[in-house]
TrEMBL record:
GO terms for cellular component: cytoplasm; plasma membrane. FMN binds at residues 67-71, 91, 144, 177, 218, 246, 272, 301, 322-323. Residues 50-341 form the Dihydroorotate dehydrogenase catalytic domain. Its main location: membrane. It comes from Persicobacter diffluens. Catalyzes the conversion of dihydroorotate to orotate with quinone as electron acceptor. Its cofactor is FMN. Its EC number is 1.3.5.2. This is Dihydroorotate dehydrogenase (quinone). Substrate binds at residues 71, 116-120, 177, 182, 247-248.
Length: 345
């Protein structure tokens, strides 16, 4: 029903506008009496064999919602009813910011993809903390943090520090986002020395806590193998807890969509099925070259249950979905978990 009726209706409307409408509808619908048990009955699938312990955290299942969908922590309790094993909020910046000019989300239906240039639009860390204080469920929550657009790279650590300190009591793990293509010069922080310095400083902050939280790094799919080798070296040197591979890509290779329309859309990160192969290659490369030295969360182009299984076989410990969730609907989480169980992973 989702693919045949609901999705065609949703896709007739502006992507960002319909996203906000879905957030409001989901919030309202799941506040009605008996709606949550019905939602759980429809979409939850649990089995002890799906449970995972990764970087010291116990996950009910390995399927999470990637950062970007619930930037401001508005739907954590609702997503807990849909069967996710964890939800990653953000990217959260110290101050709220509007992001890039609209329109800034574009669907590519023929490619089962999306191009976005949102630009870290969010309400800011203080507003997000207030929502996290009121959450009712105990689903695992990751805090994806970044710097404000106006903050120069030389002062980036101060922004990451503010977001880290504010979110620390309310999230289970942290992700440093230095790989979004939609904030000017942000990806320069992926270069070896700036990245090593940033991670080291955040690790120092974390070490001062009574119970440190896992720290992960989210990387771009556009890195070369030499740069991936640097990532492995940096992870080993700084002793952060893991890597999320990957963010969106700036590549437009192999798209079925009309070339003129793609050019007209312009800049932005491409997600969805066109990213499947490259993202899985990076998961496999990191896992093999590091001899499995650190956990990897595989994200990017998971558009079918088989794609998720391939990520896990390539070396991922957990997986995340976003664009596939939009194209496949809420039953997608259950389908992935069933496939993982069937594969014996």
């Amino acid at each position: 029903m989702y693919k045949s009726v609901i999705r065609p209706f949703l896709f007739k409307h502006d992507p960002e506008a319909i996203h906000h409408s879905i957030v409001k509808f989901t919030k309202g619908a799941l506040s009605l009496p008996f709606s949550r048990p019905i939602c759980r009955a429809l979409y939850n699938f649990s089995d002890p064999k799906l449970e995972r312990e990764v970087f010291g955290i116990k996950f009910a299942n390995p399927v999470g919602l990637a950062a970007g969908f619930d930037k401001d922590a508005k739907l954590i309790d609702e997503f807990a009813q849909m069967g996710f094993g964890f939800v990653e909020i953000g990217t959260v910046t110290p101050k709220g910011q509007p992001g890039n000019p609209k329109p800034r989300i574009f669907r590519l239906p023929e490619d089962q993809g999306i191009i976005n240039r949102m630009g870290f639009n969010n309400d800011g860390v203080e507003a997000t903390v207030e929502r996290l204080k009121n959450r009712k469920t105990n689903i695992i929550v990751g805090g994806n943090i970044g710097k404000n657009k106006v903050t120069p790279n030389e002062q980036a650590f101060e922004d990451y520090k503010i977001a880290f300190e504010a979110l620390f009591p309310y999230v289970d793990y942290f992700v440093l986002n230095v790989s979004s293509p939609n904030t000017p010069n942000l990806r320069a922080l992926q270069e070896k020395e700036p990245l090593k310095q940033l991670l080291s400083e955040v690790k120092k902050l974390n070490a001062q806590k009574d119970a440190p939280k896992p720290i992960l790094l989210k990387i771009a799919p556009d890195l070369t193998n030499e740069q991936l080798d640097d990532i492995i070296e940096i992870v080993n040197e700084t002793q952060i807890d893991g890597v999320i591979a990957t963010n969106t890509t700036i590549s437009r290779e192999g798209l079925k969509e009309n070339a003129e329309r793609v050019e007209e859309i312009g800049a932005g990160g491409l997600s969805g099925a066109p990213l499947t192969k490259r993202s899985t290659e990076i998961v496999a490369y990191l896992h093999q070259k590091s001899n499995g030295a650190f956990p990897i969360i595989g994200v990017g182009g998971i558009n079918s249950p088989e794609d998720a299984v391939e990520k896990l076989k390539a070396g991922a410990s957990l997986v995340q979905i976003y664009t596939g969730f939009i194209y496949q609907g809420p039953g997608f989480i259950k389908d992935i978990n069933k496939a993982i169980l069937k594969a014996g992973l």
